[in-house]
Amino acid sequence: MQSYQAANDALKDKVILVTGAGDGIGKEAAITYASHGATVILLGKTVSKLTAVYDEIIAAGGKEPAIIPLDLKGATAKHYRDMASTIQAEFGKLDGVLHNAGILGVLSPFEHIDLPTWNDIMQVNVTAAMLISQALIPVLKRSESASIVFTSSGVGRKGRAFWGPYAVSKFATEGLMQIMADEFDNTTVRVNCINPGATRTKMRSRAYPGEDVSLLKTPADLMWLYLYLMSDDSKDVNGQSLDAQIK
Fold first, then answer.
1. Considering all CA atoms of the chain, what is the largest pairwise distance in Å, rounded to the nearest integer?
2. What predicted TM-score, i.e. pTM, was given to this entire model?
3. Where are the domains of the chain?
4. Topology of the domain covering 15-243
């Protein structure tokens, strides 16, 4: 499947929300989705970064994106309900959500995990993704073929020393995906996970500061899977946790 090639218009007329769209994989996904015909909704906490992505999409001839500045750490369920109402009023439907936003926290021994760090990671990586999905389900159901994609990790499948709250948040993400996929099976909404693997991002550099980044895949190298799961080519794929890097 790694040889998958999306048609140039694979996402034509689709409306896709990308969280964490200002940097790294989220930025690359937003630009890639736009280049394949989608109208992209850019969600992130830093307006200047979202504006830069907006400008890049416009310069490449993509459809005009929407920008939603929102800090997932402090956002409430009402913020997400209001966002869903705005999306429905503006676009009439939503065809996809890429839950890309996430925080790493600090890698530390289990005995040194502090509650504020734990709570922040769970809030951004799990609770926000749940609340966003919950708020957007009615808008996603208006699509003929809607896709929700969560971001997983290798440490969310097998626990690893010192990865504490981040690893637990990714185990929870896998569980959330499986529950939603089972509930929405045989509907027009499908739910899956992507494990990006070791990728040249700021989060990766914080986790492995001494690593030779030239040996890592770039976000662009992974886009085949991000395109596949958002396109109608994957309309029968549900409840799967897929690796963007196949060894």
1. 52
2. 0.94
3. 15-243
4. Rossmann fold (3.40.50)
